[in-house]
Amino acid sequence: MDFAFPIFVEAIPSLLAGMAVTAQIAFMSALLGFVLGTAGGLARVSSRRVVAAPAWLYVTLMRATPVLVTLLFLYYGLPSAGILMDATTVAVIALGVTNGAYTSEILRGGIESIDPGQMRAARALGMSYPLAMRRIVLPQAARRILPPITNELISLMKNTSLVSTVAISDLLRAGMDFMSWKANTFSPFVGVALGYLLLTLPLIGINAWLEKRYRVT
């Protein structure tokens, strides 16, 4: 074991800077994933094939493709197509569209778990489909999807470690750079592990609380 406490302490400022980058990428990716996931989930339960089919294709494609493959495909493929974006933007898109696909399925499952009779009753009372979805179905579905959505955010946070492969100075990259500089593996990577733990612990706590609060019996 090559752990050296002075090296661990010396690595902390670099690791904190990397944590900030990781948190920023995770936050922006989560926002993009929420937008895509909401749109995709609603499209998946639509009775119109012209709406549901593209959503099904998007969800299937992104769930079947590893995040790293999507990230590298966009990072190296977009410039070949004449689309120039910085690495952070590419990382947010790759993580966001992947998260959106899983969020779509979570939302679809939540909506379909609600008794269809409630939608029919709302329509019988004169509500439009969007109004019934917004006032009757989605509030009930939200109670059931919040825990798995939070769990998906935990996975998103951990998946941000993949952005180090496209030269982004995230938490993992900061640890790897410090490891190379000091020729010491264990010391900086103790800090990397603690950094990811600190970033995910709040989400784990929220997830546990939501599961207890909204447990479906």
Notes on the structure:
This protein is an all-alpha fold and 217 residues long. It contains eight helices and no strands. The model has no long low-confidence stretch (mean pLDDT 91).
Secondary-structure element order, N to C: HHHHHHHH
CATH topology: MetI-like fold
Coarse structural class: mainly alpha
**Unreliable runs, pLDDT <50, ≥5 residues?**
none
Mean pLDDT: 91
Beta-strand segment tally:
0
Helix proportion range: over 70%
Distance between the termini: 48 Å
How many helices? The count is 8
Write a concise synopsis of the structure shown:
With 217 residues, this protein is mostly helical.
Short descriptors:
mainly alpha, 217 residues, single chain, MetI-like fold
Secondary-structure map:
Elements: H1 5-44, H2 49-64, H3 67-80, H4 87-112, H5 116-124, H6 129-159, H7 171-182, H8 186-213
Helix pairs in contact: 1-2, 1-4, 1-7, 1-8, 2-4, 3-4, 4-6, 5-6, 6-8, 7-8
